[in-house]
Amino acid sequence: xxxxxxxxxxxxxxxxxxxxxxxxxxxxxxxxxxxxxxxxxxxxxxxxxxxxxxxxxxxxxxxxxxxxxxxxxxxxxxxxxxxxxxxxxxxxxxxx
Amino acid sequence: xxxxxxxxxxxxxxxxxxxxxxxxxxxxxxxxxxxxxxxxxxxxxxxxxxxxxxxxxxxxxxxxxxxxxxxxxxxxxxxxxxxxxxxxxxxxxxxxxxxxxxxxxxxxxxxxxxxxxxxxxxxxxxxxxxxxxxxxxxxxxxxxxxxxxxxxxxxxxxxxxxxxxxxxxxxxxxxxxxxxxxxxxxxxxxxxxxxxxxxxxxxxxxxxxxxxxxxxxxxxxxxxxxxxxxxxxxxxxxxxxxxxxxxxxxxxxxxxxxxx
Amino acid sequence: xxxxxxxxxxxxxxxxxxxxxxxxxxxxxxxxxxxxxxxxxxxxxxxxxxxxxxxxxxxxxxxxxxxxxxxxxxxxxxxxxxxxxxxxxxxxxxxxxxxxxxxxxxxxxxxxxxxxxxxxxxxxxxxxxxxxxxxxxxxxxxxxxxxxxxxxxxxxxxxxxxxxxxxxxxxxxxxxxxxxxxxxxxxxxxxxxxxxxxxxxxxxxxxxxxxxxxxxxxxxxxxxxxxxxxxxxxxxxxxxxxxxxxxxxxxxxxxxxxxxxxxxxxxxxxxxxxxxxxxxxxxxxxxxxxxxxxxxxxxxxxxxxxxxxxxxxxxxxxxxxxxxxxxxxxxxxxxxxxxxxxxxxxxxxxxxxxxxxxxxxxxxxxxxxxxxxxxxxxxxxxxxxxxxxxxxxxxxxxxxxxxxxxxxxxxxxxxxxxxxxxxxxxxxx
Lengths: 96, 260, 429
Prior knowledge:
The complex is a heterotrimer of chains A (96), B (260) and C (429).
Chain A: H1 7-12, E1 16-18, E2 25-27, H2 29-34, H3 41-44, E3 50-52, E4 58-60, H4 70-74, E5 80-82, E6 90-92
Antiparallel strand pairs in A: 1-6, 2-5, 3-4
Chain B: E1 3-6, E2 9-11, E3 17-19, E4 22-24, E5 30-32, H1 34-50, E6 55-61, H2 67-77, E7 81-86, H3 95-109, E8 114-118, H4 129-137, E9 141-145, E10 147-150, E11 154-160, E12 165-171, E13 174-178, H5 190-196, E14 201-204, H6 213-216, H7 241-255
Parallel strand pairs in B: 1-6, 1-8, 6-7, 7-14, 8-13, 9-13
Antiparallel strand pairs in B: 2-5, 3-4, 10-11, 11-12
Helix pairs in contact in B: 2-5, 3-4
Chain C: E1 2-9, H1 13-23, E2 29-32, E3 47-49, E4 68-79, E5 82-89, E6 100-102, H2 105-119, E7 122-124, E8 129-135, E9 138-144, E10 147-156, H3 163-167, E11 179-188, H4 191-197, E12 205-212, E13 220-226, E14 230-238, H5 239-243, H6 251-260, H7 265-268, E15 272-282, E16 293-294, E17 297-299, E18 308-310, E19 313-315, H8 317-337, H9 342-345, H10 347-354, H11 356-363, H12 367-370, H13 375-378, H14 380-392, H15 399-414, H16 417-426
Parallel strand pairs in C: 1-2, 1-10, 2-7, 4-12, 10-17
Antiparallel strand pairs in C: 3-6, 4-5, 4-6, 8-9, 9-10, 11-14, 11-15, 12-13, 13-14, 16-17, 18-19
Helix pairs in contact in C: 1-2, 1-8, 8-10, 14-15
């Protein structure tokens, strides 16, 4: 839906993220395309990181990940290879 | 080859918040400075190339107990030993006082073939301390090295002059500062972190170095280092893009920014 | 392979208390924490129940960094364009030994890591444990950052997702039906504004929970905790109900709508966003707990499912701390016996029962079923408001008639067989 794009981006902008070179979330887009009918990842992610690209494939802006694991738990088709970022990388909460 | 590497521990700037134009240091961990890690890496490579010797990480502290924990990072990266000059008087010291303490510690823990520094600290970045230490120790200094090679008696350094590369040679002992391009500092492995806890850490008080609080007292005071605050006019133009552009240009002309 | 006596996976409250408990008895213990510091990956709603903890390492808590002791409890039901708030201010909430404190994890966990370090534990930050090492059924250590380190006992306090323990088959992978997701904003406000807005004495804090429209009828609610110079404002919602909605509502929109609600807006006015975080919350209850021990390992904190949502009290951190304490005791017992088999470590369950952890989980047994009932979150908050509006209404009918009408309405709304059933289901909550 994202009627107001960037609304979550502004929130993520308040956080500290230490970015690794490699993504810690990898989508099996083939599964998303051929098996998944619901794409709940678009709805459940509190950071609104999942998108459908022009080719209709799922993408994830893993750089802004809050590491809650909601997408991993909710994905019906087990289409995510989801790890925590490497030690020292990813979100570093200061006030939560 | 015996090498002293001067390091400064500072708050992790990425984790620091700024509130009301002042840094919030609460709950922000300290770590070894970024460029100091390049110096440490360069020292480890020279030591290993020479086949023997030791790398000693040297720092100053106002006496915080956590300094020992922070210096473990330098030991985990690969330093063989840590030396800490610890004294409450160092809390307020400027670059001159810090250089006195470092030079004293290097003299006492030495002799060293080489004293390495990052070109500047992550927080203050004055870049003064290396030259001051070199002067106090009577060492030749090469600044901003982007590569280092040693033959044992002679050290060769390259530095970038923009359009050209300058190659310098010096007899040892010497002092050298390095830039970040010189190497990619290693990330310590768990095994090396575990070993770091068992490496020797030596603490000196100022008295051990024939110094006292007066010697390291600051000679100048920083009144403010804030950039001047600039106010904005916050003018918004509505309407069609063409009309907005016209209004913007008219406003800039009226302000005297543009002439027509 | 390098060996230590104990490895703790995760520098959260469970792991750090376990490490503290082991180190003070002279056990060689190493904590692996993947964040830049203990607390860097950790998210709480915002409140630690302290009273149950005072008997656990009593010497530990004197200088605990907290935000505010909670002196005022509020429950607000939002529905039908109205807000009804029940409020309790009691000297028995705060007083000399407050029941609960608002806290921030970056400060609390680093403080606890310092305590563990001072006791002799080794806390390694920036280090993710990648895998549990196995020898048959037995957990014999971890692989981390390319190195393998062995341990007699590995205390797995890796958090709610259980990636390592789930990956090794020591527990099940988390299911949406047993979890909620919480997300919150830290909003900075001056301390004086916080004290004025919640009518607090200087230094005291408030906790406010919200039910009803916050979650659009889904199981869950909103929360607000006052820190010293900020508030934590968030929403918790059932993952299963969120992901099976037929509309396109996105989870994060709930918090934005919550903040915009007429009754909430004045509470956050003038505040500045300082952080946004999210966390999965286990709500499966005691019936869905994994086995918490096995040969060479113990599960502690959220990794063991120790979390409890009883609507007005939401607990996790006190259970984590107590389970860390129990894990340390179990590891010490195993060490004394020279036996870290599953049979020897089974003593952990006894220690857990001795603390309040299992009593609390037991008392919350009925909660998962009860909160599946969506009437709690959709119908009742509005109905309460309509009842009270009847009392407060003034129009051309006589007030006596109005109250009677209102009570008649209340009978209609509440005295239904469903309501009685719902009350019955909540009796244990």
